[in-house]
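Supplementary Methods. Inverse-folding protocol.

Structures were first reduced to a discrete structure-token string of length 393. This string, shown here, constituted the complete conditioning input.
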């Protein structure tokens, strides 16, 4: 299930069980979530009423899952066209409704009532009673009871247990960007990172070609594909970290995989726009130079679309203090950056006028004129960050 919640996509996977049962559980979960959202339909803020709505798309199919990166920075990704089809199902849905693809609909058509959505999609009618739908509750995770060994006076036993605990936790730390991990450690006593309204520079990189090769992968080629994606991810992360940025996550777009990058959160610099521009050029060049592996007897063409924008955002740790939590950057700035990325052509870096003004003394930028972006009432003046001469030294 792909859920868009106030502009931020959430990917929910129901694996392992029978696929019919998975789809049934996904639809029920989607209906429950939509009902729960009614409590937050209108939220009073100092700036007025904020309306929160959610759109859910459900699709069933195959995907390749892999852990990519290096021991320093890892990411868990899902690859394949069925992942993007879930995104497409959400995009073709309706706010406050659960939308199913043709494949998902075929699995549960006798379990729910539907109405026709856009061609090839079906909207679930929420006409179930509470008893028919079932109940759920959010149960915060309680504190773990200390192991009895920690109460012992035996120094060797205590050291051994602490070592085992650190060995089990350390691999998980690489899935969290280092600056965010530092914040988590600093706020461990409060179990919550304080919310803030910073002004970061946001970059979206749509990496196309290699992730889609998962559909062609023959038995035994999955590792080669994952290693190829892992190498690109590691190089991109190195380009970002070396310039003081944060590679936050890999998410999913209608085509390819989106890589979300921040400059200015959680650590701000006086020249984050310049740092982002430098990183974008490096990322584009390394993707253009990447020698993609042959998958399914096909050598894929790999390329990228990049968008950069800056502005005020809402930064907070989302979730329950004792349950699932995530450090996230939210707001119109993030959504607008994704729109800039979507407007880019192959290997093009599209930036907003705000970014152009901050970097124009160092980088040449070509005007793209006033461009109408999806979800925007008025056109935005956009620019292309011109290709730079490559360093041959």
């Amino acid at each position: 299930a792909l859920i868009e919640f106030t502009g931020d996509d959430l990917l929910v996977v129901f694996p392992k069980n029978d696929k019919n049962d998975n789809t049934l559980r996904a639809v029920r979960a989607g209906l429950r979530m939509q009902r729960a959202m009614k409590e937050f339909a209108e939220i009073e803020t100092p700036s007025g009423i904020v309306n929160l709505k959610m759109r859910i798309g459900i699709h069933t199919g195959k995907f390749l899952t892999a852990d990519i990166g290096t021991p320093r920075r890892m990411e868990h990704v899902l690859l394949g066209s069925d992942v993007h089809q879930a995104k497409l199902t959400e995009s073709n849905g309706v706010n406050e409704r659960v939308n199913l693809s043709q494949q998902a609909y075929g699995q549960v058509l006798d379990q729910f009532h539907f109405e026709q959505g856009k061609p090839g999609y079906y909207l679930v009618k929420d006409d179930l009673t509470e008893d028919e739908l079932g109940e759920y509750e959010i149960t915060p995770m309680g504190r773990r009871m200390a192991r009895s060994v920690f109460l012992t006076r035996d120094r060797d036993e205590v050291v051994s247990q602490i070592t085992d605990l650190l060995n089990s936790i350390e691999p998980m730390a690489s899935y969290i960007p280092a600056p965010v991990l530092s914040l988590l450690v600093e706020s461990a006593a409060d179990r919550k990172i304080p919310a803030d309204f910073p002004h970061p520079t946001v970059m979206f990189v749509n990496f196309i070609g290699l992730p889609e090769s998962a559909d062609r992968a023959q038995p035994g080629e999955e590792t080669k594909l994952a290693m190829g994606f892992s190498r690109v991810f590691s190089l991109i992360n190195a380009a970002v970290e070396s310039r003081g940025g944060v590679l936050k996550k890999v998410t999913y777009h209608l085509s390819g995989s989106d890589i979300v990058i921040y400059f200015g959160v959680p650590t701000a610099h006086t020249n984050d726009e310049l740092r982002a521009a430098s990183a974008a050029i490096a990322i584009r060049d390394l993707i253009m130079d990447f020698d993609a592996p042959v998958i399914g007897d096909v050598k894929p063409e790999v390329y990228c679309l990049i968008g950069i924008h800056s502005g005020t955002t809402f930064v907070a740790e989302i979730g329950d203090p004792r349950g699932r939590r995530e450090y996230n950057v939210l707001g119109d700035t993030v959504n607008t950056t994704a729109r800039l990325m979507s407007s880019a052509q192959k290997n093009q870096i599209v930036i907003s006028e705000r970014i152009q003004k901050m970097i124009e003394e160092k980088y040449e930028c070509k005007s793209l004129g006033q461009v109408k972006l999806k979800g925007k009432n008025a056109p935005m003046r956009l620019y292309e960050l011109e290709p730079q001469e490559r360093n041959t030294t």
